């Protein structure tokens, strides 16, 4: 890989690295290590949700039936599409098609935004159905089953944490798109797009794990 | 016969002989001197010193809180301070010492400073991330201290639910948020170390030429990466529960308090090895240098680091023997806890074998290392008592536990920290410290530590519970003894703070390699230049290439 091209594709070598290959290797390993920690952050929540299901199947199914399956399913599709556009952005960046890359990144951010809007609507519907047990002014619809309350609480923590990641991801993506739209970006920082792409796919992956665990199992 | 020749010193590998000192302009301390150049630095050595200064500050805060606790326990009836104040004092002590001193101590200071030097790299893989981790650490730690200023926390450093979520009416929330933020700092540091050790080694620096210090930090970094996210989850859940009543721990919200203990100890047991493993790395550098002998069983010591890091993930249940977990689970966790002894013992035996028939020099770092080995053995062996189900029923949550984990965490971390600080002080600062004062303080700390904590084993065995502000009058003698020991210990801690700072201006200029030690960090000047090496370092033929080689060759040829 060339070190630096005026208008081409490449990575500018930072001072403390000996070669660009070393720099790329470090960046890739670094993002994978970070993603493992992120996965563990969520996995504790998912594990507890699964154990709750196994120990209290009836209460959790009753609670899970209140979740808006079709919104969740639509959101799954939305995120998978956003992963596709992100992959396209990476492919375009490798080919040096800067304009197409920027468009694909904007599309990715838009799909991420759509997810958040749908999620927000879902929370509103939950509120409407008295499915927010932590609001003392709106008595919980399934009050007599503590396990249902535990499951619903886990659902809120897990989805809020995911939404927070998605929100941060969109903000980072827009910031990077702004930089990537400038001339010469691809000749210096092509690997940023690759590294960021892995993070976006990870957000997608977490949802793909969350959706069956929270919405689908035993439905 | 070449091995026998090496004993006579004829075939002794001459150090790469770098310049003892370099121009002031070139060394990393003096290259730039603006405040900005320190607080926006990306040089791993300067960041290490930022950490060193901050954790020393936190150590002082934690030590003062410990002093308050020991003061309160001089009398049995709690006459010196209110129970509430006592609870807040031991909570501050625990929170500050565990989260803001012990966990970052060796990795964030020595690890940051030495890993790139030891592997022959110019810097860590992600210098900006390294600086970020210091700011994250400081932000979180200061946020937590705000809760202390506002009025304190009384939950203990473990934040057990539902006390922390529903019943405590102190400033739990800012403390929780601060600790959660601090948690990201070791994740970033560990990530940086793993990537650096994988990708930044100098040509020829293979895995089995790495110093044990680097192996230990590699193992520690894996724990940082794999355990810390789980405590972050647990703390986020606590915050949600306390602030918004989105609960999973309090039965009132449908939750399960034992679940918190599972999540908490899944991190906090491995965290013990976050504290101990780097200390083991330090000791594995000091012992061969002051015995002038190759580290005995290098590969086994390296494997034992990874072994400890792995086993430690499977023993968290031994913190829950008496909370109603199933007998089968307790049995399994008990058996696995015993397994921790194996890699720990491997290390102790290897250090002992290294010392055996070495050319011993009892300078300050070596005194700390010997003290470390003694305290670690006692702490480790009492861990076996606690892992035994029947004995655990008797001594659970007593001062026996307090004594045990202080032997491991203070004996195992603070002594290694101080030993390492003296060992690498010439490299950090370019100055020598006062050797007589160093020896005096090492002996004072060892003495003070044992007088403080050994009586606590007896107190615990006799049944004095931990975390109580009052106790039956018959325990007073041992408690007074313990508090007296804490005074000696405090003096021992105070001396290094004075003579080390004094040496910064008035100490003798340090040569590049004052201990005649091996390892790439000694092949550059003291202090090193900004990019660590003026010319690419020569990677040694074998690790720990000291004049005295393995025992067998000595017996064969000698």
UniProtKB/TrEMBL annotation, chain A:
<feature type="transmembrane region" description="Helical">
    <location>
        <begin position="154"/>
        <end position="175"/>
    </location>
</feature>
<feature type="transmembrane region" description="Helical">
    <location>
        <begin position="69"/>
        <end position="90"/>
    </location>
</feature>
<dbReference type="InterPro" id="IPR035973">
    <property type="entry name" value="Cyt_c_oxidase_su3-like_sf"/>
</dbReference>
<feature type="transmembrane region" description="Helical">
    <location>
        <begin position="196"/>
        <end position="217"/>
    </location>
</feature>
<feature type="transmembrane region" description="Helical">
    <location>
        <begin position="31"/>
        <end position="54"/>
    </location>
</feature>
<dbReference type="GO" id="GO:0019646">
    <property type="term" value="P:aerobic electron transport chain"/>
</dbReference>
<dbReference type="Pfam" id="PF00510">
    <property type="entry name" value="COX3"/>
</dbReference>
<keyword id="KW-1133">Transmembrane helix</keyword>
<dbReference type="InterPro" id="IPR024791">
    <property type="entry name" value="Cyt_c/ubiquinol_Oxase_su3"/>
</dbReference>
<keyword id="KW-0812">Transmembrane</keyword>
<comment type="similarity">
    <text>Belongs to the cytochrome c oxidase subunit 3 family.</text>
</comment>
<dbReference type="GO" id="GO:0005886">
    <property type="term" value="C:plasma membrane"/>
</dbReference>
<dbReference type="InterPro" id="IPR013833">
    <property type="entry name" value="Cyt_c_oxidase_su3_a-hlx"/>
</dbReference>
<keyword id="KW-0472">Membrane</keyword>
<protein>
    <submittedName>
        <fullName>Cytochrome c oxidase subunit III</fullName>
    </submittedName>
</protein>
<feature type="domain" description="Heme-copper oxidase subunit III family profile">
    <location>
        <begin position="29"/>
        <end position="219"/>
    </location>
</feature>
<feature type="transmembrane region" description="Helical">
    <location>
        <begin position="102"/>
        <end position="121"/>
    </location>
</feature>
<dbReference type="InterPro" id="IPR000298">
    <property type="entry name" value="Cyt_c_oxidase-like_su3"/>
</dbReference>
<dbReference type="GO" id="GO:0004129">
    <property type="term" value="F:cytochrome-c oxidase activity"/>
</dbReference>
